[in-house]
Amino acid sequence: MKPILVVQNEPMMTTLLCHRLTMNGHSVLTAIDGRSALDLVSWARPKLVLVDMLLPDMRGLDVLSRLKHQPATADVPVMMLLPYAHEGDTVAALESGAHDCLVKPIQPRELVARIAGALSRQKVAA
């Protein structure tokens, strides 16, 4: 089973996301920064990537851009985690290729529903 990669540098948020995802039958890998995330994606081939907009070494949009510009990862759904509801950030993420955006604090049922939607759209497109 391909994992979901959670790219988040806040330990409490990472724990909450991983718990919710594993409770819903997903395997999960984590990265605390953009460089680690890009390294993991290259060998783990996740089915979906959740990327925080604010990472310690690069912006989440930079991670998204690199994923979308590499042929091996261009089709992997990416969902951005935003620290606040700001139209500019949401639009920038969607225009850069994000499948969806979630604003923190993330509601657990919404997270699961949006991931299910992104994965089902990915299957239809394949």
From TrEMBL:
Gene3D superfamilies tied to this protein: 3.40.50.2300
Keyword Transmembrane in record: no
UniProt KW Transmembrane helix keyword: no
PROSITE patterns, A to Z: RESPONSE_REGULATORY
Modification 4-aspartylphosphate, positions: D52
Annotated Pfam families: Response_reg
InterPro entries: Bact_response_regulator, CheY-like_superfamily, Sig_transdc_resp-reg_receiver
Domain Response regulatory: 3-119
GO BP, sorted A to Z: phosphorelay signal transduction system
Name under which the protein is recorded: Response regulator receiver protein
Species name: Maricaulis maris (strain MCS10)
